[in-house]
Write a structure and sequence with these properties.
seven-stranded mixed sheet; 6 helices; binds zinc ion
Length: 212
């Protein structure tokens, strides 16, 4: 029972990282893809039980797009993002709101396109948020993804969870680390060690179990 974790990039010209993590957390395959079709090939070959993507996989309720010129708007008044994003903010976990004019528009469109394709092919896909997973698993002092300290921080904290990444430790970059933490969140989900935030009508976020 493997989980395929993806750290998705907005552009197909930059490699998106994938990590395929076995259920015993003792085997891992790392790789990357450029075009969506290349991801489809990896998925077809590996047949993961679950696919965990670290990007928004749905638009807010009432939205048909993220274009400012379109008249679609939040179905719930006074919203500035999806419910799961408001809930994250309430927990003190920063995130980008999925809204008109989002700087992540290209990434979100790509993530939704990939989710649709994978679900059509019969795969289970979940939305994860590596920054939130890290805060819940490791505590508040998580360095920002693109900071210098991030890769060594992630290696130090991932190895105790997923010891098999030791074989790769020298070559891990931050994108691979994010794909691994996404796959790990997926394995927690299979083991019922997760909670979800948000409204299923506009997509939920899967997180490690919240403290009571
Ligand atoms: Zn629209």
């Amino acid at each position: 029972m493997s989980v395929l974790g993806i750290d998705l990039r907005a552009s197909t010209k930059k490699p998106s990282a994938v990590a395929i993590l076995g259920s015993d957390l003792k085997s891992i395959l790392l790789g990357s893809f450029y075009e969506d079709i290349d991801l489809a090939k990896v998925v077809k070959q590996e047949r993961p039980q679950l696919i965990a993507i670290g990007a928004p996989l749905n638009l807010p309720l009432g939205f048909c797009c993220l274009d400012k010129s379109c008249g679609c708007k939040f179905a719930v008044p006074n919203r500035k993002g999806r419910l799961l994003e408001l809930e994250l903010a309430k927990m003190g976990i920063s995130c980008f709101y999925t809204s008109k004019g989002s700087i992540m528009k290209d990434l979100i469109y790509r993530a939704i396109r990939i989710r649709n394709g994978l679900e059509l092919a019969g795969y289970n896909v979940i939305e994860v948020y590596p920054h939130a997973t890290k805060i819940l698993l490791f505590g508040d002092s998580v360095p920002p993804k693109h900071s210098l300290a991030s890769v060594s921080y992630m290696k130090d904290h991932l190895v105790p969870l997923v010891s098999c990444i030791n074989d790769y430790a020298g070559g891990l970059d931050i994108y691979a680390c994010e794909a691994i933490i996404n796959a790990y969140t997926g394995q927690l989900h299979i083991n019922s060690e997760t909670d979800v935030l948000g409204d299923p009508r506009e997509g939920v976020l899967v997180l490690p179990q919240l403290p009571n």
